[in-house]
């Protein structure tokens, strides 16, 4: 009898199938030490996937549609199945080779959309000060007029 069957839970006889729930089986990989290792799952509930990755996938999809007109024509351009491309965008696995295959115009549009979406995250203190300068000068003038 194999090692995996020795530790398996025994079967239980049931009278009805109303309460039986099926679970998808996962492969159990033996490690070098003899214990079993469960494979890592790529759950869609990870915090990174729900936030930034979804936003990034939306930007990539938007750039594809902007440049190629539709997801279908973008999929044809990069020689990929449309449903596979949608799935890869949703899962965040649309890779750089596919983006490069979409062409230079796509990459330029993607760059513009990324700067538009995330450009404010890395502003220097000097840029922030220059942008706020008119507001601060207005507040200073208002304070000086109140003192008169």
What features would you highlight for this structure?
148 residues, mainly alpha, 434 Repressor (Amino-terminal Domain), two-stranded antiparallel ribbon, 7 helices, 59% helix, 3% strand, elongated
What general form does the structure show?
elongated
What CATH architecture label of the domain at 47-122 applies?
Orthogonal Bundle
Which range best describes the helical content: under 10%, 10-25%, 25-40%, 40-55%, 55-70% or over 70%?
55-70%
The total beta strand count reads: 2
Please write the CATH class name of the domain at 47-122.
Answer: Mainly Alpha
List unreliable stretches of 5+ residues: 37-47
Distance between the termini: 96 Å
Radius of gyration: 28 Å
- β-strand amount: under 5%
Largest beta-sheet characterization: 2 strands, antiparallel
Alpha plus pi helix count: 7
Strand order of the largest sheet: 1-2
CATH topology (level 3) name of the domain at 47-122 = 434 Repressor (Amino-terminal Domain)
- Rounded mean pLDDT is 78
- Compressed to H and E, one letter per element, the order equals HEEHHHHHH
Class computed from helices, strands and strand pairing: mainly alpha
Verbal overview:
This protein has a domain at 47-122: Orthogonal Bundle (434 Repressor (Amino-terminal Domain)). Helix content is 59%, strand content 3%. It is built from 7 helices and 2 strands, in the order H-E-E-H-H-H-H-H-H. The chain has helices spanning 3-6, 47-68, 71-77, 82-91, 96-101, 104-118, 125-147; strands spanning 29-30, 36-37. A two-stranded antiparallel ribbon has the order 1-2. The radius of gyration is 28 Å and the shape is elongated. The chain starts with a helix and ends with a helix. Mean pLDDT is 78; it is low at 37-47.
């Amino acid at each position: 009898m194999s090692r995996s069957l020795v530790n398996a839970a025994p079967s239980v006889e049931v009278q009805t199938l109303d309460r039986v729930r099926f679970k998808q089986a996962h492969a159990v990989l033996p490690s070098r030490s003899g214990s079993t290792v469960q494979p890592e799952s790529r759950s869609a509930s990870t915090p990174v996937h729900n936030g930034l990755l979804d936003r990034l996938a939306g930007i990539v999809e938007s750039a594809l549609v902007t440049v190629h007109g539709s997801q279908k024509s973008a999929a044809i351009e990069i020689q990929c199945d449309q449903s596979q491309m949608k799935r890869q965008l949703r899962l965040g696995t649309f890779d750089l080779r596919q983006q490069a295959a979409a062409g230079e115009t796509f990459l330029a549009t993607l760059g513009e959309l990324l700067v538009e979406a995330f450009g404010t995250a890395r502003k220097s203190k000097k840029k922030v000060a220059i942008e706020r300068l008119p507001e601060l000068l207005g507040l200073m003038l208002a304070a000086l007029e109140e003192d008169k």
